[in-house]
Amino acid sequence: MIKLLKYIKKYTLEAAMGPLFKLLEASFELIVPLVVAAIIDNGIRNSDKPYIIRMSLVLIMLAVVGYICSVTAQYFAAKASAYFAASIKKVLFKNIQGLSYEQIDTLGTTTLITRMTSDINQIQSGVNLTLRLLLRSPFVVFGAMVMAFTIDFQQALIFLITILVLSVVVFGIMLWGIPRYKMVQELLDKVLGRTRENLSGVRVIRAFGLENEEATVFKEKNEKLTKLQEYVGRISALMNPITYVVLNFAIIILLKQGADKVYVGALSTGAVVALYNYMSQILVELVKLANLIINITRSFACGNRVQLMLEKKGSMEDGSLDAKSIVISDGEPVISFENVCARYTGDSEDSLSGVSFTAMKGESIGVIGGTGSGKTTLINLIPRFYDASEGTVRFKGRDVRELSVKSLREIIGIVPQKAVLFKGTVRDNLLWGNQNASDEEMWDALNAAQASEVVKEKKGGLLAEITQGGRNLSGGQKQRLTIARALVKKPEVLILDDSSSALDNMTDKNLRNAIAKLPYKPVTFIVSQRAASIRFCDKIIVLDDGHVDGIGTHEELLKNSETYREIYESQFGKEAANA
């Protein structure tokens, strides 16, 4: 948590002005009991009304100035804490963007979201309260004690003992609470994870009638979190009543001894009232301090979690070569796999093993296989979403690990399995592929992706609005627009990962023909479970449980690959396979 404070350096002025004005307010507050004592001893005792009026005006002036200082302190503290939190969010988001797919898979999306939202909001609240109260409350407590010593030494000793006892209570509960609040945040991650799974998979849950089972699991996790929060809350809640008991007991002793001294003339009535007011101020400030420490405890737990996330650096080493600068002669492969194996973190077996093939400029490569055969794993190795555990993936003869990740991905157009569009216009979404694309280039990409009619039907054309996630489009429309987005960048390598599953056979055929006629002739990888989508590819790779079962054309694979023949027969029948 301490390391995060470097992000508040840019707002040092605001961070300093907040406590400063709070201390000014506290100084005026400490003067009030002395003014009240003077009114009692000099004004009321002597029936001096002008003096009472003058001192009352002084009290009003102190209240007004204190109010102005308080509002000013609140403004600066809020500004500093808000910008501080914004700076951390910016850095954290950038750091998360630099993490590899492997790290994101391990950490989990829910954990990352919690760090970005709940944890940072708690840190912001803690910093805000710290700037306002961390110096003010101790200042008032010790200031009141010092003022008490100036009035009566023996009475002031009661203040000293009371403050020591309360310090033990407050800091003892704080040290106990820090690790427990960390456990609360970890359980919150799990509850949020379950919630996210249920909301994203609500259709599947309802389709299988598992609403009650999922509700039961969620209830168990939620109750575990609730019980821990109640336990921590009960212990933390002891702080206020214990504080009140100790302070009120101290006030009783103070008033008893003060009354005895007033009776013998050793102390004035105004002085006793002043001492009582100082003790009341201590009571209020220690209650504030107790609540502040609880909040700081939570903030420290959240801050440590955020700091751990900031310290995680991308596990994928970046190369130095610019992929765009590499030139090859005719006949050399653009993409080549050399005995490549891939394994996900925590797995005991390879998801992909012994894959070797080459892809030439303008070639279309089909990748087919059953569910879980490693199709997506294979194509994810090309743009370095993951790195091969063994073997080498080459781009134009150079190991992809030698290339700059940014430059490599700039020359690769990727259409993932899940079609994702962002809130904005059609043009905004297409510009993700190429920020400098002209309208003509966008329409060329839309025509090739068979999406031009979709856009023309929308009011506004390229300016038509797309809702978050593309919810105002059908599955096929979203797929075609995501393909167009990839084509706008005119990639040297185009990867279509089962991206035409929602298209009808005719549209799929037209799409493949349009891609084959692209003037810049990209190497095209088409991943599909439909044999019709990859049937006419120059080369087809058949995967079976992570192993290559065959590589060749459609006709060759029907003869030589049992896996491919089974897939084709299941979709077209034995007669078509034997034709």
Topology:
Blueprint: H1 12-44, H2 49-97, H3 101-107, H4 109-134, H5 136-151, H6 153-200, H7 202-207, H8 211-237, H9 239-264, H10 269-311, E1 335-342, E2 352-359, E3 364-369, H11 375-380, E4 390-395, E5 398-399, H12 405-410, E6 412-415, E7 424-425, H13 426-430, H14 439-448, H15 452-457, E8 465-466, H16 475-488, E9 493-497, H17 505-516, E10 523-527, H18 531-534, E11 539-544, E12 547-552, H19 554-560, H20 562-572, H21 574-578
Parallel strand pairs: 3-10, 3-11, 6-9, 9-10
Antiparallel strand pairs: 1-2, 1-4, 4-5, 7-8, 11-12
Helix pairs in contact: 1-2, 1-4, 1-5, 1-10, 2-4, 4-6, 4-10, 5-6, 5-10, 6-8, 6-9, 6-10, 9-10, 14-16, 19-20
CATH-defined fold name of the largest domain: ABC transporter transmembrane region fold
The H-level CATH homologous superfamily of the largest domain, spelled out, is: ABC transporter type 1, transmembrane domain
Largest β-sheet summary: 6 strands, mixed
Number of strands: 12
Q: What is the correct CATH architecture of the largest domain?
A: Up-down Bundle
Instruction: Quickly name the level 1 CATH class of the largest domain.
Output: Mainly Alpha
| Helix fraction bin | 55-70%
Report how far apart the termini are: 70 Å
Q: Taking all residues together, what is the mean pLDDT?
A: 86
Backbone CA Rg: 35 Å
Seen as an oligomer or otherwise, the chain set is single chain
Overall, the morphology is: elongated
Structural class: alpha/beta
Counted by DSSP, the helix tally is 21
The share of residues in extended strands comes to 5-15%
Strand neighbour order, sheet with most strands: 6-9-10-3-11-12
Low-confidence stretches: none
> What is the total number of structural domains?
3
